[in-house]
Design brief:
- By secondary structure, the chain is mainly beta.
- The protein has helices at about 30-35, 165-170; strands spanning about 1-5, 10-15, 20, 25, 45-50, 60-65, 70-80, 80-85, 100-105, 110-115, 115-125, 130-135, 145.
- The chain has 2 helices and 13 strands; from the N terminus they run ββββαβββββββββα.
- The strands form 3 sheets. The protein has a 6-stranded antiparallel beta sheet with strand order 1-2-10-7-12-5, with no helix packed on it.
Amino acid sequence: MEILDTLLPEVKIVKPQVFGDNRGWFYESYSYEKLKKLGIDTQFVQDNRSYSKEKGTLRGIHFQKTPMAQTKLITCTRGKILDVAVDLRKGSPTYLKWISVELSEENKLMLYIPKGFGHGFVTLTEDVEVLYKVDEYYSKECDRSIKFDDEEIGVAWGTENPVLSEKDKNAPSLKDSDVDFVY
């Protein structure tokens, strides 16, 4: 495994070592010990999977508030997504900055997003499956969203009319949210 830096110092791209031959390929998608040696010391407690049928499906910007804030390790196992992380930690030098990374079944990259960051993705193909690990269990009471097109954040999603859930259609703007992360 290899860790690649992003413009948000705490957000990392994880590049697995892929072994291929005439039969196909194999790679280790997660190893606590290997990631720990590379500086990612997170123990995950839950795996989540999502499936999106249509290209242009947008999920986000999502996070869980303290005390159930989540660190995530995201990968795309079918299709292709533009994955986005937004720094929501007040006082951070990168507050409200965001990065996007293309994750796909072809490149097999993973995105590591620590607590204090919002997360979202838009599907770039049809029939997309995303798998992500989290280090805290889901909490309905702490589950939050911010409008995907919040002007204060300004994520360039690359789609004008995304397919949205009711939750994401009705998400508050950043200024109206109760984000509680502090750097």
